[in-house]
Structure prediction request, 397 residues.
Amino acid sequence: MYLGSQLFTDDEYATRLHRVRELMEQQGLSAVVVTDPANIFYLIGYNAWSFYTPQMLFVPIEGEMVFFLRDMDAHGAHRTTWLPAEQIVGYPESYVHRPHVHPFDWVAWALRQRHQIAPASRQGSVGLEMDSHFFSPKAYRALFNAIPEWKLVDSFELVNWVRSVKSDAEIQLMRQAGMVCSQAMRAAIDTIDVGVRQCDAAAAISQAQITGTDDFGGDYPAIVPMMPTGAAADTPHLTWHQGTFNDDEAVVIELTGAHNRYHCPLARTVSLGTPNKDVDYVAGATAEGLNNVLDAIRPGVPTRELASTWNWTLAKYGLEKPSRLGYSIGIGYPPDWGERTISIRTEDETILAENMTFHIVCGMWMDGYGFELSESVRVSATGVETFTSFPRELIRK
Prediction:
């Protein structure tokens, strides 16, 4: 439940900012410009569908943060963020979607007015979220031209890395998202059948995602339900069409539960009619591999060992998976529910820590068919916690 207008306590928000500033100091940054809506939500709790226009949380290594966003959105920002009104600044509507000006032109002027641009002699590097989905080349050019005092550098997902270890309060929200996810997956399995239109199955899933449970309502997901079907299941990330499901084909379902912006994705594969023998074979290998990976998870284990465990299991079956095995998850906004930090693959050097959370995606995209099995998990003090409890097998209907 929300604490007044806040989702987390003042102490938790203070701890998050402190951890961000510790990393800023290590990277030699005097400020970071935060544009990823998930990172803005993480630091100040702001939550609205306003990220399609430029917005920026300015985080200095000392002093007050300032949140800049479109004027019409700034008026209501106080309804979700804990920031006081004087730290929420709206830029004029005349800067929205104009060809020769950018809102950050105005934001740069506003930062000068607030004396938050230090002289060049005292100005360290300013970190930008160079890989944020919502930081455009035009936004970069506006800051580069308007604030020549700044040495603009990549912050290398600084806030995202702070997010990779969750608090106990965040874990509880992810458990609730897992309950929503279970409802959505149950709706998918119950609805998908021979002769059913794919769009009708997507509608049933979406309704379950938003309805949630009696206790925990759902949010809009960062990614829509994905349902590669039949021969097209050899390709991930396909959605749906208005055609019907057919007999003797497999349907890959990848969806998520979302609750207060925290996401728990899940994938399962449904076989309509008689399973293809190749799908059946891959399903057995994949289930064994996933179970072996889950058994290997515990604090102190390098993520590369999880990838190696998976690869060795597949090798026994004469199979391989070139893509990564999984990634860190938590807060999600469109177009992605991943955190863009830890990837489970053999070259990743990250060491697992308690309360890291991952989507482990055992997706096998073959030639003319596919199979997917996944789990969202938490690294517990002694092993692993899964956020859902669906059987890890090919589901036959």
